[in-house]
Amino acid sequence: MQRALCVIMISMLKFEVLKTDGGVRRGILRLLRGDIQTPAFMPVGTNATVKAMSSDELKEIGAEIILGNTYHLYLRPGHEVIRSVGGLHRFMNWDRPILTDSGGFQVYSLSALRQIEENGVCFRSHIDGSMHFIGPAEAMEIQRALGSDIAMVFDDCTPYPATHEYALDSLKRTLGWAKRCRELQNEGQALFGIVQGSTYKDLRTMSIEGLLDIGFDGYAVGGLSVGEPKEVMHEMIRFVGPLLPRERPRYLMGIGDLMDVLVAVEAGFDMFDCVMPTRNARNGTLFTSAGRISIKRTEFKADERPLDPQCLCPTCRNYSRAYLRHLFLTREILSMRLNTMHNIYFYMDFFRKMREAIQAGKFQDFKRRYENMAWIETTV
RNA sequence: GUGGCUAUGGUGUAAUGGCAGCACAAGAGACUGUGGCUCUCUUUGUACGGGUUCAAAUCCCGUUAGCCACC
Fold first, then answer.
1. N or C: which end of chain A has fewer CB within 10 A?
2. Which nucleotides of B are covered by protein (CB under 7 A)?
């Protein structure tokens, strides 16, 4: 028993593929703070909180790992503050694994003024306009202070559209930074590389080869869902997935539309994160077994039924559509809580059922059933 | 009772006699490694009845309603 623990302690991350079904995989990602069943969904907890949820509630609805943000926590409250109070887990009272995004994407999408330099990015805070600099060294130091279980390399997210020339330049920059991050990898913290290369297959291939030369605990794909047509995104997912090493976890960053997830799982991806369930919950769009619905619709005004009669989440077990609609329209705090609880539960449940289907060798059936279901639209 | 003022979508307000506009509310969407944010689209109106004019929310008369002042 004691010995087994030691083995795990030595390698901070262990990935076991339990079952394959074509290119589809079902596995377990083992980290010191807990196991993660894959394919896995990671709820987004930007500011050291999955908005509206307490850590107990997150556990109750089945979250095994969450995502935190380097960029946000660096700006507020400051990573030194979090270091001084014992790290991000202790700070937010979450004892399961945390993956931290490196800030590369946030610098790209949030800060108005962004100047890319050799050693990093100079940017203006979206909060108060103050100037800051983050590069690979800073990103690794911040993630060290946060104490996340999985850190991401600091990448340059290539905007869409990008010329081949620009994308190549951007890709080289990301590779250089990835190498630096790997050199600075923190003890006890796994590190994932990020594939860039925009919509160019040769560049995606080059990116993967570059990352493989360096060697990472896991491989992520970035630079997708940044405005490109869906078909292009799917094409890239299908192209890149199989090129990533089989024995390492594959993480598709930022993707969370469930149809896209199905495409990606089919291409061999294991991990996902997305603001979609949480943000949509806050904006009143809820996921149900019969499709998405907008809870503010007039038709739910006096509807006493649960949001999704087939759902076993606390929201569906205890409250009516009429009440959820009222809470949303009156902008009550409870609305955010109940909606978020439901949407995350729905995602967790979706992934759990998907894993069961893979285990049973029935992923294609699962995928087809969901595709058909998604057509039903809003009639619940 | 007399005099004065006012009347424009659900609400609050624009429009010199010349396309009735704006905000909020309401309705339908969108949201993919940030956003209780934001964006897109839509419905709804000149209190009522006459008159003048090529043309009326606008000018005139009456009715109704509200507000103010005086008896």
1. N
2. 26-38
